[in-house]
């Protein structure tokens, strides 16, 4: 019997092609996903105004990154294994009808208990990849980026009728797992973006020098919804067109950045044009505007950053009747970065004010010999077996 499709197929198999967190930058991921105020031009996808923040020797930066975050993966997958083993063992015992080892009510109850336990488990996953080229300048910094990320959810629904079916098998001596009607759903939305980023530094008498940047984006949204019972499940159906929909549109981000001595400030408004994708069942998932602000303090080789979402993020929150994908969230992030000669150590803590997502502790390590090549690695840990990782390669030309 194959039940892992509910989570592994729905969440993890989709991950490579396309996060409650926006952005895939591994440098920021190591510092609790912060960076709109503390970063430089290499993190321009987080705040396009950062294209004006660079060192005199910087010319061009090229990066390639990947990231994944999975929640409750261990308990969910262990429960799938336990349920699968229990059903297979029960079916074998019924079919064998060995007089010395007849199926008992305890055997039936064990299968029912496993199915009920599976009903209360789920897996939530998100992942993404990106590529970017950034050219910094005070007068006209610009860049190009391509990224794709997916958020996915898997859930299982126990059918009460299966309890009667299993108990009846003890009387009839007949049991076929294909008659079970407990079902699962794999639900995902992916966003692919192609962006042109631009920024310049301005000076106003009232505020002094500050930077403003924009990211003009072509977006493609894909939805994926696969419902099936154990009886009719076929892993060959995962990517059939009948389970997928897509739509495309244009969008825009706007960012501000200001440096005042050892302090820097950043504000970013992302996805200012609301977008929507409708799945095969006619249920809509919306990509909504978000606004974040941050302040960072730089002291010799240490940078600290505090970043807060100013509005609740309800992007891809399921509407009534739709399977759960994401929940409302509003993050606060505290990040630290220590710059050594050719290495960086990053720490962070992220908290959701809405308490829909567990707090994350992050740890990142970067190596950048002669500031020409960079490799950034990240680990993230949260409650309920939540675990994440990110990798990014970069080259300065």
From TrEMBL:
Pfam name, any one: TraF_2
User: Which keywords fit this entry according to its UniProt record?
Assistant: Coiled coil, Signal
Question: What InterPro entries has UniProt attached to this entry?
Answer: Put_conjugal_transfer
Which top-level group of life is the source organism from?
Bacteria
Residues annotated as coiled-coil are 66-93
Q: Which residues form the signal peptide?
A: 1-20
Name the record gives this protein: Type IX secretion system membrane protein PorP/SprF
Q: Which organism is it from?
A: Ferrimonas aestuarii
Q: The organism's lineage?
A: Bacteria, Pseudomonadati, Pseudomonadota, Gammaproteobacteria, Alteromonadales
